[in-house]
Amino acid sequence: MKKDNKLIGAGLLTAFAASLCCITPVLALIAGTSGLASSFSWLEPFRPYFVGLTILVLGFAWYQKLKPKKEIDCDCEADEKPIFIQSKKFLGIVTAFAIVMLAFPYYAHIFYPKTEKQIIVVDKSNVQTVEISIKGMTCAGCEEHVNHEVNKLSGIIKSTVSYANGNAIVEFDNTKTNITEIETAINGTGYSVTDKKEK
């Protein structure tokens, strides 16, 4: 029974570790400490291993629960009903939680408020576009976090952030903000600006 509890605990731990790099930006947003967002981005290269380990551990736990028990002829009392933490129901809850955790990077964006601003540009010659290279983003949650912080600045017309390309393309009114303020906002998330090019 203790072995089952250890398997379930290991399954939860590996599922949490697999998504920690994507959960941290959302937790940082909720806590109001956006600088912590990239704290666990170093875990991203290990995510496939954590996912695989979670599946193996929970698969083995289910195998242990569902395999037929050997019949022993004895006049013993019937097996007692297992406590909740050792039941199939609890293992089902843990498995569902693990699936939710493993899928987190695919729905992290729903936790970020939509920032729709009405920008009035008086002179089109004031519109400037910059491409900023960013180090440390690993998933859609990172994109949303950077986008959210950049859009807090006044004068941002459009911001497109891509973790796959490792960049942000920002269109802004240079009379209301500037490249340095945008860079500061991005660095404030915990991710690092490595380069910037005006377009």
Q: Count all strands and give the number.
A: 4
Specify the oligomeric state. Answer: single chain
Estimate percent helicity: 40-55%
Summed up, the domain count is 2
**Spans of at least 5 consecutive residues with low confidence:** none
Look at the helices and sheets and give the structural class.
alpha+beta
State mean pLDDT (0 to 100 scale): 78
Rg, rounded, reads: 24 Å
Provide the β-strand percentage band: 15-25%
Order of neighbouring strands in the sheet with most strands: 2-3-1-4
Distance between the termini: 63 Å
Number of helices: 6
Reported for the largest beta sheet, the result is: 4 strands, antiparallel
Which shape, going by the Cα principal axes?
A: elongated
The ordered H/E elements are: HHHHEHEEHE
Summarize the structure.
With 199 residues, the chain is α+β, with helices and mostly antiparallel strands.
Features of the shown structure:
single chain; 199 residues; alpha+beta; Alpha-Beta Plaits; 2 domains; 15% strand; Transprt_MerT; cell membrane; Mercuric transport protein MerT; mercuric resistance; HMA_dom
